[in-house]
UniProtKB/TrEMBL annotation:
It comes from the Bacteria. Residues 9-76 form the HTH gntR-type domain. It comes from Solirubrobacter ginsenosidimutans. Pfam families: FCD (PF07729), GntR (PF00392). PANTHER family: TRANSCRIPTIONAL REGULATOR, GNTR FAMILY (PTHR43537), UXU OPERON TRANSCRIPTIONAL REGULATOR (PTHR43537:SF5). Keywords: DNA-binding, Transcription, Transcription regulation. InterPro entries: GntR_C, TF_FadR/GntR_C, Tscrpt_reg_HTH_GntR, WH-like_DNA-bd_sf, WH_DNA-bd_sf. This is GntR family transcriptional regulator. The keyword Cell membrane does not apply.
Amino acid sequence: MAKGRVDITSVPDRVYAILREQILAGELEPESRLHQEGISAELGVSRTPVREAIARLAAEGLVELLANRGARVAAVRSGDMAAAYEARLGIEPLAARLAAARRDAAELAKLRKTLTPARRGPKAAYAASRAFHLELAVASGNPFLVDFSEALWAGRLGLHVYAQQMTPEQFAKDALEHEHILDAIEAGDGATAERLTREHITHAQDVLAGRVDADGRALSDAA
């Protein structure tokens, strides 16, 4: 649930921002109920800004309003994850190639910082991965790629999926792959950065789909 009291001077926006980030970070899982009373108590605000925040999140598709039963975080629909990874394969390799051509020092420094906590457990690993891929879009210098990437990571690429499907070995492998991608970008090698990003996403897609293990070995459906 949301944590931390909010500044009363901008309560509606802050409540909205806190809940939205909790959902995007995967801390509020799909289909988990949003209890206005509990959120109000934890944030030290009235129910009105909480209700307004939930309505805004529902308009974005992040929350579902239930008739006479309150609200919950939007459910993961069948095919959402596969569709998200298909889109990522079109967007993120291009972002890596553009970032290598642009090589903005400030943006690359931000990318480098996302690598630091990548091996500190599932929650930190997921947060680092999300931060890396969002910063990668920013480093491309293309605002449309930024919007597309944010929309994808605002969907069903959540912590709960990583916690259920990924292993500590996979988190470590992801972190290493991020480093290799960034090394290629910093070297200005757009072709390699693009290829490594595509391989990285494809491997993660296969792991999450249960087609391979963390080391890339095929998993038999008959086992």
